[in-house]
Amino acid sequence: MQNLKYIQQIIKSMAEPVTYRDAGVDLGAANAAKKKIKEIARSTFSSQVLSGIGSYGGLYELNDGKVLVSSADGVGTKVKLGFLSGRHDTLGQDLVNHCVNDILVMGAKPLFFLDYIGSGKVYPEVIGRIVGGFAKACRENSCVLIGGETAELPGLYKAGEYDLAGFIVGEVPKKGIIDGSKIREGDVLIGLASSGLHTNGYSLALKVLLENAGLSLDEKPKSIGSTLGDALMAVHRSYLAPIALLQKNNIPLNGLAHITGSSFSKNVGRILPKGLSAAIDRKSWQVPPLFRLIQKLGNIEEDEMYQVFNMGIGLIIISGESNSERIISLLKPFHLSPSVIGCVKKGNREVMLI
After folding, report:
1. Which of 22, 253, 256, 347 meets the CB 3.0–4.6 Å disulfide criterion with 105?
2. Of 51, 63, 262, 350, which Cα lies nearest the Cα of 177?
């Protein structure tokens, strides 16, 4: 009976291919909005601002040769899983780790984190679990949870619903900034495994799995080896410790890309210098079963999957080919399945998935 139910779910979901736009997310509109934001924000810059809008984090130079790196983010529609499952602490961890990674790829170590929680009604136990997740991840990343804001907004959110935002500030010596400017033709891309979807693509994933296919979070699809809820709520991985180890061993890191929204094209493309492109071999790593389940049940085209999801790669290191064996050897204890997944070529800042 279970197999029959699963077959019926597949048939139900295979009528038409599902896209990110069908799930309510328009990447084109988001990019247009960001273009306007860049123009407005740039009008406020001083000579101490070293980066433009669109980098992983903002760079602000201090007088002592150090640079503050800041970033802000959320966990998107992954919060819906908290409403449905009653599990809230891991969402706090997700948010901290995501923010840590966004400044880490610019060479920074986190100093402090602030949060914003907007909710329809304040339930102290729920807030406590969320903040407990913030605190756990901050301790793991040697970061201080220094403050935040909790707003009760009954006209905006339903009771039991909330949204989260995180704000992080880190520090890097000016000479230690990683901005992609040292990337050269012939460099290799080394992929590090994600723990799952991390914090992107949930609008599409939930539409396909819960809405269209009618699965529940308690179901255990054979291919993923756990409940659907556990797989979807896997904590966004922090890459601070492995990257710190590479830096401690003086491994040249020419570029780092955190694979988040818009996946490979945006996140690798924005660190490539003019005149260079990147080629990524999709056959060079094994895509985790959860992504293939989403693709199958949603009849989603391959290119759409790689545009929306990280497909099992959470961070990409760009370094000289001669460093690849050393990097892979040093990172093996972290169980990140490090491997060469691509290379840098001449081009116009394109990211080619082959």
Report:
1. 256
2. 51
